[in-house]
Design goal:
The protein is α+β, with helices and mostly antiparallel strands and about 375 residues long. It has three domains: about 110 residues, Acyl-CoA dehydrogenase/oxidase, N-terminal domain (Butyryl-Coa Dehydrogenase, subunit A, domain 1); about 100 residues, Butyryl-CoA Dehydrogenase, subunit A, domain 2, CATH 2.40.110.10; about 140 residues, Up-down Bundle (Butyryl-CoA Dehydrogenase, subunit A, domain 3). Strands 1, 2, 3, 4, 5, 6, 7 and 8 form an eight-stranded mixed β-sheet that branches. About 45% of the residues are buried.
Length: about 375
């Protein structure tokens, strides 16, 4: 008998899509109520936590679920078809894990400690990056042993269920000038407060409230990165490559749900040439969203971060957003007047998918970035 025959079997690989399918019914049942109430999808988040989803992308050797990148994107898309708010909020946690994992694998960065904590402590990470982006916001004042940070972070999706706020603030370095510091802040830290400001058109259940930091102490050891304010930095090329295919998976899922509901209605309607053409146009729009999103995923899995790759990913971000929005617009037409009723769910999908317009780089900023790069100009110009 060979040594390989005697070797103990490894842990069984988890089928995360099947696990997502098992919870999607419950997520969908809760979605409409949270939309009406402007309330955070707390039950859905609790269901994801019970299923181990928050450590799904952490490698098995670090204690996590071992889900691959494309598999994670497919899970978010599947969740998005059930509840857009749950999927989008979960993508914000997931992309922070994915960036940490990419840096550990490709740069030998010491981010494995965070990944182990996510798995062992079932941590929920909250991002403020979309509102901060290159300039960041808030002030960091140097004190003995660290900094005192005062800031108000908007669009902090899922903050009511968060354990760590992954954020940044600007330190006026006497030598280097305005410098953005990156760090994590426990929500239990003194000086952290949540202001429930999220009353919006769509994605109402994300609980993307404001988080206030009032002279919160950040130890020197907690500062994980420093960069010049307002300039493209290698970290942001990594974020662009890894984060946005996951975030936009939620919008593909929302569009898919609207399309599927519209097709159900259309199959019961009297057939005519106008309906055929509308359905064909809707199918084309959704196919464009899927194709552009698939390319974003391939880039995240195979490309290296840099100015050119960022342009390609952000082109995808614009194309996916436009096609997802167009899919839901056409779903309204295909389903007819009944789609105006909230009970059908297409109206909510139409409002939720509008959020695709507002993540960086927004369309005009993406066009400017891509155009300058194509012409050989400085992307920081």
């Amino acid at each position: 008998m060979s040594a390989s025959t005697l070797a103990a079997p490894g842990p069984a690989q988890i089928d995360w899509l099947t696990r997502a399918d098992a919870v999607c019914g419950q997520l969908a049942d809760n979605a409409a109520r949270h939309d009406v109430d402007d309330s955070f999808v707390a039950e859905n988040y609790a269901r994801l936590k019970a299923g181990g989803f928050f450590s799904a992308h952490v490698p098995a050797e670090l204690g996590g679920g071992g889900a691959g990148y494309a598999e994670l994107a497919a899970v978010i898309r599947r969740l998005g078809a059930a509840c857009g708010s749950t999927a989008l909020t979960y993508s914000m946690h997931s992309h922070l894990v994915a960036v940490a994992l990419w840096r550990w694998k490709h740069q030998n960065a010491p981010t494995d400690g965070l990944l182990r904590r996510v798995a062992a402590e079932d941590l929920v990470l909250i991002s403020s990056g979309g509102s901060d982006w290159l300039k960041s916001a808030g002030t960091a004042v140097k004190v003995d042993g660290g900094f005192r940070v005062t800031a108000r972070k908007i669009f902090s999706s899922g903050c009511l269920a968060g354990d760590l706020l992954m954020t940044s603030a600007v330190y006026d370095d006497p030598e280097a000038g305005p410098t953005v510091l990156h760090f994590g802040v426990p929500f239990a830290a003194e000086g952290v407060a949540i202001h429930e400001t999220w009353r919006v058109m769509g994605m109402r259940g994300t609980g993307s409230h404001d988080v206030e930091l009032n002279a919160v102490f950040i130890p020197d050891a907690a500062v994980s990165g420093r960069r010049p304010q307002g300039k493209w930095h290698p970290l942001f090329h990594i974020i662009s490559l890894i984060a946005f295919p996951l975030i936009y998976a939620a919008y593909v899922g929302v569009a898919e749900s609207a399309r599927d509901k519209a097709l159900e209605v259309a199959r019961r309607r009297p057939a005519d040439e106008g309906l055929f053409q509308l359905v064909g146009e809707m199918q084309n729009a959704f196919a464009a969203a899927v194709a552009s999103h698939d390319r974003m995923i391939r880039l995240a899995e195979t490309a290296m971060p840099g100015a050119e790759t960022t342009s390609e990913v952000m082109i995808g971000r614009t194309l996916v957003g436009e096609a997802a929005i167009r899919t839901t617009e056409l779903a309204l037409e295909v389903a007819g007047g009944g789609a105006f009723h909230r009970s059908m769910g297409i109206e909510r999908a139409f409002r939720d998918v509008q959020g695709a317009r507002f993540h960086p780089l927004q369309q005009k900023a993406q066009l400017r970035y891509t155009g300058r790069l194509a012409l050989g100009l400085d992307i920081d110009g």
